[in-house]
Amino acid sequence: MKKRMLSLALSLVMAAALTACGSKAPETTAAPADTKESGSSAEADGAAAKDVQKIIDRGVLKVGCKSDIPKFSLQNTATGEYEGFEDDLAYEIAGSIFGCSADEAKEKKLVEFQGVTAKTRGPLLENGEIDLVIATFTITPERKETYNFSTPYYTDAVGLLVNKDSGINSIEDLDGKIIGVAQSSTTKDGFKKYVDEKGLKVNPQFQEFDGYPALAQALATKQIDCFSVDRAILAGYVNDGNQILEDRFAEQDYGVAAAKDNKGLAEAVEKKVTSMLSDGSMKTLQDKWGLQ
Amino acid sequence: MIKGLFDGKRWSALFTAFPEYYIPGFLMTLRISLVGLAVSLVLGVIFGMFSTSKWKLPRIISRIYVEFIQNTPLALQVMCYYSVLPMLFSSSGFRIPKFVLGVIGVGVYHGAYISEVIRTGIEAIPKGQSEAAASQGFGYLETMYHIILPQTIKIIMPPLANQALNLVKNTSILAMVAGMDLMYFTDSWGADRGYFAQAYFTSALMYFIICFPLARLARYLEIRSMRLPVAKKLDIQADEEAAC
């Protein structure tokens, strides 16, 4: 019995040691190769903050982007590449961190994209899986307490997508109907505010879904009457059977988010975004992707 | 995520949101669990008896039901009830209430499993028991009710409790179709504020609050069914016979 216990304890210790090695190994092997390569770019950046230096040492900026929004950030199913306005913005930021141009950053694959949803982007950012979230992330006072947001890089409004045969033609028709919204979106509060401001008596029921495809499917099967999210996202789901209503409300600002602790990184991002806004390159980038 | 786990501000945010999110979610999950459990038990007993019946037709029906439900994922079934089933009734957007959807979803799913549990329980009783019952003039239902099912209970109680607990936990799949259950509200609040650690931890605790008493109840019933002294029942019968 004693022997068995001993062997059990031993195997446990060994297992622990093994896992410890496993998690450490990649870091130690990867570090020397990267430091040589990135030494010059770190100098160019001057005295980089600790968290920025970590990214430079790693040699890649990990960015969470949506993978299902045309024009903003869409993963090309053939190549696996992320293409869109937000992805180009990620390359721009990577360029400024690594001290090269955006095209070079793209060529050298200095950005590692990870597909995120409204639900996963927060936790992924907080546990350090990704450095930045550039995923139609609306800036709100509550979220500012949890994350570091940059200056808004794009302003969008919420739209309403309804089935053509539903007989809903304006926001007034939505009284008592079911509006589907995305989890962790600000649509619900925006809708209520808009209705109050206009003095309308519209009292719909809200249901939250995880992901836009689920919402589109619920609308197509008529389980919800209206699909309401940011217009940028809605545009990707318009087809012959549905239409976007005229109403637009809850103007909202998208910001680049970094974890609360990564102050240096947030500063670097802020610097890049504001400079892009002031020199008009942000506008050029938006025009390139056909965003108004 | 772990960093934020002991953040007092986040916990206080949770307590303010608790009545609005967690209470209705908890009640919905509890209601779906209880009614779903009743439905699955009824289905389980009916189809369990079907699959041990001596006629071929009920056996076939029961087999089809069990094999079909057991070999498809619950998520897919719920999705079907949610978006495909209403189309059979009308094309103009008939909606099944979320509560009914949940009861059908977990009830039908676990009904299939429970019917298998009951079938194996019945088959575990020696054939001599039903032969003896038949020799005493018991009909099929009477044999089942008085002789076979009471004996199967102590055999099937552990796997049955297993199913009941899984049923409670599987109600969480409703969150996928905005089922207004505990998981739905957890996701909703967690995603809203970004305080996932608090949201999920509390949710886990509330599922535990439902599951733990259920597990204890099943254990109690199991012990009681084992303790049931057979001799005592015989005594009463003997007395009755003597009285006759």
Cα separation of the termini of chain A: 75 Å
How is the main sheet of chain A built? 6 strands, mixed
Give the number of DSSP strands of chain B. Answer: 0
Order of helices and strands of chain A: HHEEEEHHEHEHEEEHEHEHEEEHH
Low-pLDDT residue intervals, each spanning 5 or more residues of chain A:
20-46
Overall geometry of chain B: flat
Q: How many separate domains of chain A?
A: 2
In terms of quaternary structure, the protein is heterodimer
Strand content of chain A: 15-25%
Q: Briefly note the CATH topology name of the largest domain in chain A.
A: D-Maltodextrin-Binding Protein, domain 2
Low-confidence stretches of chain B: none
Q: Give the N-to-C terminal Cα separation of chain B.
A: 74 Å
Mean pLDDT value of chain B = 86
- Helix and strand succession of chain B? HHHHHHHHH
Structural class of chain B: mainly alpha
- The number of helical runs of chain A is 11
Please characterize this protein's 3D structure.
The complex is a heterodimer of chains A (292) and B (244). With 292 residues, chain A is an alpha/beta fold. Chain A folds into two domains: 42-153 and 255-288, Periplasmic binding protein-like II (D-Maltodextrin-Binding Protein, domain 2, 3-Layer(aba) Sandwich); 157-252, Periplasmic binding protein-like II (D-Maltodextrin-Binding Protein, domain 2). Chain A is built from eleven helices and 14 strands. Chain A has helices spanning 2-44, 50-58, 85-98, 102-107, 121-126, 141-146, 187-198, 212-220, 231-234, 263-278, 281-288; strands spanning 61-65, 68-69, 73-75, 82-83, 111-115, 132-133, 147-149, 154-163, 178-182, 205-209, 226-230, 242-244, 249-254, 257-259. In chain A, strands 8, 9, 10, 11, 12 and 13 form a six-stranded mixed sheet that branches. Chain A has a five-stranded mixed sheet with strand order 5-1-6-14-7. The longest helix of chain A has 43 residues, at 2-44. Chain A is globular. Mean pLDDT of chain A is 81; it is low at 20-46. Chain B has 244 residues and is mostly helical. Chain B has helices at residues 8-51, 56-70, 74-89, 98-124, 127-135, 140-170, 182-193, 196-227, 230-243. In chain B, helix 3 (74-89) packs across helix 4 and helix 5 (127-135) packs antiparallel against helix 6 (140-170). Chain B is flat and about 70 Å long. The model of chain B has no long low-confidence stretch (mean pLDDT 86). Chains A and B meet through helix 5, helix 6, strand 10 and helix 8 of A and helix 3 and helix 7 of B.
